């Protein structure tokens, strides 16, 4: 199915021509101004462009920009017969079009396009046809978009492990979500405002110059990700993957929130070679999208029949939980569904978070994670003990709990569990158990905690969320990449941070602290190999090699000097590199040079405790 971009400024003509081209078997992209047209061209790479004379400046600037990007672009100049007499071929010559059509509302436009595309088929830019062929087939299902419909579709696709494209029309634009084994892996939209580049621009992640650079690269044939890398906006690897994943999630959330239109599902995986898959938690966008686009009344109406029933987590709850990716607040709400409280009463107790509670119960019911029973769950034969009077929490303990909680809440997930970036799943679980038990309500069962209750719940939410992220390799790496990009974890670093290098650095530091020098040298060498432009890695490696018992003394000193000088070539006033070089000079017998190096560095970094310690050592030895 050939793809045509129609740039037309007159709304009735634009609508009529778009419909005519679509009826003729073309996939039509529509733009009403030159900038939007160029963005669509960059993002979707159409086979031909129809430029209407009623668009800004007669389309000359757009045509020049397209020609500069790709001299082979197929352009058709469409005159403005709808406003009276056509301007004529002479007036349209500046567009340097492949063909001229006086009246785009007539059959001539379709015939000209068919002829041009047929002649250009041998020399035109090659484009894979997997997606086009799939979308050209009759859909396996279709229907109208109404509140909750798309949410149920996504759940059905996930449950059945379906593969294909879900296309949704809304106000003339179309969005498409691609699925492999039931999981959303890619998206695209006819609206350039929803593209990855524009999404980053709207979010303040790139400026206008970077945006234009990325668009130019895309118009030249690069994918959006490659264009952003070429524009210097993103680093390849995990930073790019994390950004694309966040954009995909936002797109799926937008699809779920869509209020009207039509949908169709084209089954098949022929699109796979054309997309770079990025997997999401398949059910997570459903709840977020429902909350964003569906009124609370819809959830209430859907639950009306079970208001007197007793909701309880079903046997599928644990299966659904990883795919749903519930946040800590939602997880806390879900754990309160124990089958002993009526739906009406459970909701009444959560008036302050009514929409969240309603939407969560609706969502869990839809995905089969909650069942509704006519009678309450039994108490396992023990019954309920009468409530007992609690004593007040001692003031000193209350203050200690408050201060500890306030230390945890603002920090990173690593800080919340008290672990570092080299943590593995087993360590994360041990840390979670230790921290969670300190703040668990059961530990305060005999006390009236008063205003600390919300604080304790917030800490539980934080450490639970931290455990969910840090106990999973993929999520932990994505989170660490997120932190490193924002310089929140390691201080100021040079561009091009490598997550594996940072983890190797931390492993090396651990090994040094435990006096396992051979292990430290191996880990720090890995860090340097992965990112040779980071002075901290080279400085740490030099320090480890200086005290490596495996090497002879002369080789240890030479290696330490080499790594320290390497670090100083990257950052001339790096304190650790200077300290390592000074220690190497001292061990090589030149204590005076070592002292000179440290004193000079202290002038630039008077507050450096490391340099002060080295100077103290040199003075003591001297």
UniProtKB/TrEMBL annotation:
Could you tell me which InterPro entries the record lists for this protein? CheY-like_superfamily, DnaJ_domain, J_dom_sf, PatA-like_N, Sig_transdc_resp-reg_receiver, TPR-like_helical_dom_sf
Ranges where the Response regulatory domain occurs: 3-118
Q: Which residues form the J domain?
A: 412-483
- The protein in question is named Response regulator receiver protein
């Amino acid at each position: 199915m050939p793809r045509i971009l129609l740039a037309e400024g007159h709304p009735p003509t634009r609508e009529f021509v778009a419909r005519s081209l679509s009826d003729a078997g073309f996939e039509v992209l529509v733009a009403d101004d030159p900038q939007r047209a160029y963005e669509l061209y960059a993002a979707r790479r159409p086979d031909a462009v129809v430029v209407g004379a009623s668009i800004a400046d007669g389309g000359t600037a757009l045509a020049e920009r397209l020609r500069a990007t790709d001299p082979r672009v197929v352009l058709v100049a469409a005159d403005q017969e709808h406003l009276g007499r056509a301007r004529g071929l002479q007036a349209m010559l500046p567009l340097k079009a492949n063909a001229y059509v006086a009246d785009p509302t007539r059959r001539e436009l379709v015939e000209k396009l068919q002829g041009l595309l047929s002649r250009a088929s041998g020399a035109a830019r090659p484009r894979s046809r997997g997606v086009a062929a799939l979308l050209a087939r009759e859909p396996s299902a279709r229907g109208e978009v109404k509140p909750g419909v798309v949410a149920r579709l996504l759940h059905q696709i996930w449950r059945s492990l379906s593969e294909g494209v879900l296309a949704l029309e809304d106000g003339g634009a179309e969005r498409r979500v691609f699925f492999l084994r039931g999981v959303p892996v890619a998206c695209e939209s006819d609206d350039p405002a929803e593209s990855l580049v524009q999404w980053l621009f709207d979010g303040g992640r790139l400026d206008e110059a970077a945006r234009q650079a990325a668009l130019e690269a895309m118009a030249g044939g690069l994918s959006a990700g490659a264009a952003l890398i070429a524009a210097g906006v993103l680093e390849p690897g995990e930073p790019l993957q994390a950004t694309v994943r966040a954009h995909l999630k936002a797109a799926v959330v937008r699809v779920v929130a869509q209020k009207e239109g039509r949908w169709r599902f084209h089954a098949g995986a022929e699109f796979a070679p054309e997309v770079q898959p990025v997997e999401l938690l398949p059910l997570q966008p459903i709840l977020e999208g429902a909350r964003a686009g569906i009124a609370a009344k819809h959830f209430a109406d859907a639950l009306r029949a079970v208001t007197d029933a007793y909701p309880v987590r079903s046997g599928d709850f644990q299966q659904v939980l990883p795919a749903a990716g519930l946040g800590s607040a939602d997880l806390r709400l879900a754990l309160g569904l124990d089958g002993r409280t009526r739906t009406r009463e459970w909701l009444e107790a959560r008036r302050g978070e009514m929409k969240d509670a309603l939407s969560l119960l609706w969502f869990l019911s839809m995905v089969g994670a909650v069942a509704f029973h006519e009678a309450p769950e039994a108490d396992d034969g023990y019954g309920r003990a009468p409530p007992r009077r609690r004593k007040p929490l001692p003031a000193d303990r209350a203050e200690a709990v408050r201060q500890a909680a306030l230390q945890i809440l603002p920090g990173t997930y690593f800080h919340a569990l008290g672990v570092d970036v080299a943590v593995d799943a087993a360590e994360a679980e041990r840390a979670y158990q230790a921290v969670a038990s300190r703040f668990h309500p059961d530990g305060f069962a005999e006390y009236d905690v008063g205003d600390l209750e919300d604080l304790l719940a917030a800490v539980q939410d934080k450490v639970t969320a931290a455990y969910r992220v840090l106990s999973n390799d993929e999520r932990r790496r994505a989170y660490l990449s997120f932190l490193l990009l924002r310089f929140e974890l390691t201080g100021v670093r040079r561009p091009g941070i490598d997550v594996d290098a940072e983890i190797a650095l931390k492993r090396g530091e651990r090994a040094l602290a435990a006096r396992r020098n051979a292990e430290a040298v191996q880990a720090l060498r890995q860090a340097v190999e992965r990112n040779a432009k980071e002075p901290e890695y080279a400085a740490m490696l030099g320090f480890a090699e200086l005290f490596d018992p495996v090497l002879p003394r002369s080789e240890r000193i030479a290696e330490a000097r080499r790594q320290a000088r390497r670090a100083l070539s990257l950052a001339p006033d790096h304190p650790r590199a200077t300290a390592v070089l000074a220690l190497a000079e001292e061990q090589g017998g030149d204590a005076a040079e070592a002292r000179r190096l440290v004193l000079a560095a202290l002038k630039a970094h008077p507050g450096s405790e490391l340099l002060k310690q080295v100077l103290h050592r040199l003075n003591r030895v001297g």
